[in-house]
Amino acid sequence: AAMYSGSTAGPPRRDFISVTLGPEDAVGVSGYNNSKAWRRRSCWRKWKQLSRLQRSIILFLFAFLAVCGVISYTSMGEAWKSITNKSLDDQRTEQEIPRLKLANPAVLPAPQKADANHGDYHELSLQKPPKLPHVRRGPSNLHIKAPQRDTRLKTQHNTMRAVEELVEVDKVEKTEKSIISWRGAVIEPDQSTEPPSNKIMEPEKPSSVEAEDQKEPVPINERQLAVIEAFRHAWKGYKDFAWGHDELKPLSKSYSEWFGLGLTLIDALDTMWILGLKEEFEEARKWVANDLVFDKNVDVNLFESTIRILGGLLSTYHLSGDSLFLEKAKDIGNRLMPAFKTPSKIPYSDVNIGRGTAHPPRWTSDSTVAEVTSIQLEFRELSRLTGDEKFQKAVDEVMKHVHTLSGKNDGLVPMFINTNSGQFTHLGVYTLGARADSYYEYLLKQWIQGGKKENELLEDYMRAIEGVKKHLLQRSEPKKLTFVGELAHGHFSAKMDHLVCFLPGTLALGAHNGLAADHMRLAETLIETCYQMYAQVETGLSPEIVHFNLHAQKGHKDVEIKPADRHNLLRPETVESLFYMYRFTGDKKYQDWGWEILQNFNRYTRVPTGGYTSINNVQNPSNPEPRDKMESFFLGETLKYMFLLFSDDIDLINLDKYIFNTEAHPLPIWVPA
Ligand code: DMJ
C-alpha cells in the first residue's frame, strides 16, 4: 500500500510510507499471520509511531523495573541460600522461620544449634536479631558497651522501629496460629512435646550485650531509696564483720560458714547491679576475681549452691556482661556435676566440690523432691552459654523421670525421692511448702524459659494446680482467707509455711503467660492471705509457719502461731509475690503492703551496727529475740524484690525477657515474648 499527500511548494515529495509485503508477511487466506518476524516488525513499527516523550517514559519504566528486579533477586538469593543450606531436619520447621525471626529480638537469640526436635532454636540462630539501643542500669563503668543515650545513632532508632513493625506483624500471625488450648492454656499448634535439645549448641552471649531498649530511665522513688538505704546498711554489717564469708552474724559482729564460699556476697551481686550500687559492686567483683576459689575440700548442698552461687553468677554475667562471672559459673557448674552420678540419675543432695565426689545425707539415700527439680533453670542456662550439653542433659533427665513417676496425687508430688530406685518415698504427704515448693515453681519457669514448647512441663504444672485446688485449698475463719494447707495420708492440715507464699507470684506469672485466667484470681486471693500472715501478727512480720482457723472462735484471728513456728528468717516469698502482682495488675495496694513489711523489717530486725537479723518471736514487739543471723537471701531476694516492687519501670528486669530463679536471680528467657 502507498499513500501520497500533496505539498504546496518544491518538487513533489514522497509523503508516504511504502511497505512491501513479502510472501511471509502477507496475510494469507486464513486472514492471520502470527509469525515471530511479523510480530517483531509490527512492534517495531508501533514503537516508531510513538512520540519521543512516550518512548522516553516507556524506557524509563523498563529501566526502573530492571533495577527493582536486580535488588529483589539478590535478597531472595540470600534467603534461599540460608534455607537450602540447612539439613532436612531443619527444613522440617521451615514455616517457622518468619515467626521466629520476628519474635521479639530485643533480648537474646536462642541457641545456635539444636537437635532435630527443636528446630525452632536452630531457626533463631540463623537469624540473629539486630542489636538495638539499650539503657543499662548499674555501675556505668562496668558496662560492656553502654551506648550513651544522647549519642545513639539515628539508624539504631530506625532499626528499632522497623523491628517493632515486624514484631507487630508477627503478633498478628501468632494470634492466628495460637489456637489450641489446654485447660485455658494457649499452646502453639506446632510445638514439640520434647524438652529442648541435648545436642547443644554454640555458646550464647550475655543478655546485656544483646538486650537493648531505648526508654528514658525511670527515676528512683522514695521507697526505692529506702530499699537502697536498707541494702547499704545490711552490706555495711557484712563488709565490716563477715567479708568473704557465707553469712553475717550481726549481733556478735562475726560470721557463720556454710560452704565457705562467700554466699552472701555472691547472692547479692545482681541486687547491687539492679540497685545501681556501683562502688559496692566493684568491690565485690574484686573479691570474686581474687578470692573466690571453688577448688576446696568442702561439701556443698547441690540445690543451695546451684540456686545461690551458680544462679547468682549467671545472672550477674547477664546483667554486667562481665565474663569473669561466666568463668566462675562454669567452674562451679562442673564441680557440681558428680552429684548426678547415681544409679537412678536422680542427683545426690551433697557434693564435695574439691574432690569431685557426691553423696546423699548420712541418714538416708533419699533426696528432696524440690531440690532435685529446682536446679534446672540454672544448668540449662549454663549449657546454653557454654555450648556444653552435659549440664542440660543431666537436669532434663531428672524432669523427664519425675514426669513419669507414680505416687503423685492429682499432680501433687511427695517430698522425697530415692537416688537408687528413682522412686518417690514417704508417699502420701503433699505440701506446697518446704521440700516440694519450688518443684511447682520450676515446672512453670522452665516452660517459660524454653519458649513454652515443653508440653510435659506445662501439663505437670497445670495438673498440679488442679491438685492444689482439689486437695489443699480451704478458707479460714473469721475472714474467710483462702489458704493452701497440707494433706497427710488423706487428712487435711490447716498448716501453711511462709514458703508457700511464692505461689501467688507463680500463678500470676503463669496467667501473664497465657494460662488460665482463674489462676490469676487464685493468685489475688492467696496474696491477700500471705499479707494477712504479716498483718495479723504483733510485729507485722510473718512467722515461718501459720495454722489457719477453720472454725470461728470468739477473740481468735484467722492466723494461729505455734511457739516453735514463730521465727522469721527475713524470707522473701511474700514480697516476691507482691512484686509479680504489682507488675501484672498495677494495683498500688501491693506496693503499700510491701512498704509496711519493709518498715517492720526496719523496726524489728535491723541491727544498729550494721546488718539485719532473723528473729525468734514475731509475736513480741518488745523483744522479738534476735537470732543473730542474716541469711544470704535477704540481700539476694528480699531487698531485690522490694526494690522491684516499688519501681514503676516494667523494664527493670522485664518479665517477658527474664525469668527469676528461685533465689531471685534473673536469667534470660530463650525466646522472649
Ligand atoms: C531461698 O533460698 C529460695 O527462695 C528457696 O526456694 C526457698 N528458700 C529460700 C528463701 O526463703
TrEMBL record:
Record-annotated residues binding Ca(2+)? T662
Q: One GO molecular function term?
A: mannosyl-oligosaccharide 1,2-alpha-mannosidase activity
In this chain, the stretch annotated as Disordered covers: 188-216
Transmembrane regions listed in the UniProt entry: 56-76
- Entry annotated with the keyword DNA-binding: no
Q: Spell out the family assignment given in the record's similarity comment.
A: Belongs to the glycosyl hydrolase 47 family.
What does the record give as its pathway?
Protein modification; protein glycosylation
Return the protein name. Answer: alpha-1,2-Mannosidase
Topology relative to the lipid bilayer, per the entry, is: Single-pass type II membrane protein
Give the record's GO CC terms: endoplasmic reticulum membrane
Subcellular location per the Swiss-Prot or TrEMBL entry: Endoplasmic reticulum membrane
Q: Which reaction does it catalyse?
A: N(4)-(alpha-D-Man-(1->2)-alpha-D-Man-(1->2)-alpha-D-Man-(1->3)-[alpha-D-Man-(1->2)-alpha-D-Man-(1->3)-[alpha-D-Man-(1->2)-alpha-D-Man-(1->6)]-alpha-D-Man-(1->6)]-beta-D-Man-(1->4)-beta-D-GlcNAc-(1->4)-beta-D-GlcNAc)-L-asparaginyl-[protein] (N-glucan mannose isomer 9A1,2,3B1,2,3) + 4 H2O = N(4)-(alpha-D-Man-(1->3)-[alpha-D-Man-(1->3)-[alpha-D-Man-(1->6)]-alpha-D-Man-(1->6)]-beta-D-Man-(1->4)-beta-D-GlcNAc-(1->4)-beta-D-GlcNAc)-L-asparaginyl-[protein] (N-glucan mannose isomer 5A1,2) + 4 beta-D-mannose; N(4)-(alpha-D-Man-(1->2)-alpha-D-Man-(1->2)-alpha-D-Man-(1->3)-[alpha-D-Man-(1->3)-[alpha-D-Man-(1->2)-alpha-D-Man-(1->6)]-alpha-D-Man-(1->6)]-beta-D-Man-(1->4)-beta-D-GlcNAc-(1->4)-beta-D-GlcNAc)-L-asparaginyl-[protein] (N-glucan mannose isomer 8A1,2,3B1,3) + 3 H2O = N(4)-(alpha-D-Man-(1->3)-[alpha-D-Man-(1->3)-[alpha-D-Man-(1->6)]-alpha-D-Man-(1->6)]-beta-D-Man-(1->4)-beta-D-GlcNAc-(1->4)-beta-D-GlcNAc)-L-asparaginyl-[protein] (N-glucan mannose isomer 5A1,2) + 3 beta-D-mannose
Q: Where is the active site?
A: E304, D437, E544, E573
Its cofactor is:
Ca(2+)
| Broadest EC class assigned to this enzyme | hydrolase
For this UniProt record, give its keywords in alphabetical order, as a comma-separated list.
Calcium, Disulfide bond, Endoplasmic reticulum, Glycosidase, Hydrolase, Membrane, Metal-binding, Signal-anchor, Transmembrane, Transmembrane helix
Basic and acidic residues bias locations:
201-216
Its biological function? Answer: Involved in glycoprotein quality control targeting of misfolded glycoproteins for degradation. It primarily trims a single alpha-1,2-linked mannose residue from Man(9)GlcNAc(2) to produce Man(8)GlcNAc(2), but at high enzyme concentrations, as found in the ER quality control compartment (ERQC), it further trims the carbohydrates to Man(5-6)GlcNAc(2).
Gene Ontology biological process terms in this record: carbohydrate metabolic process; ERAD pathway
Q: Does the keyword Ribonucleoprotein apply?
A: no
Per the UniProt entry, the disulfide pairs are: C501-C530
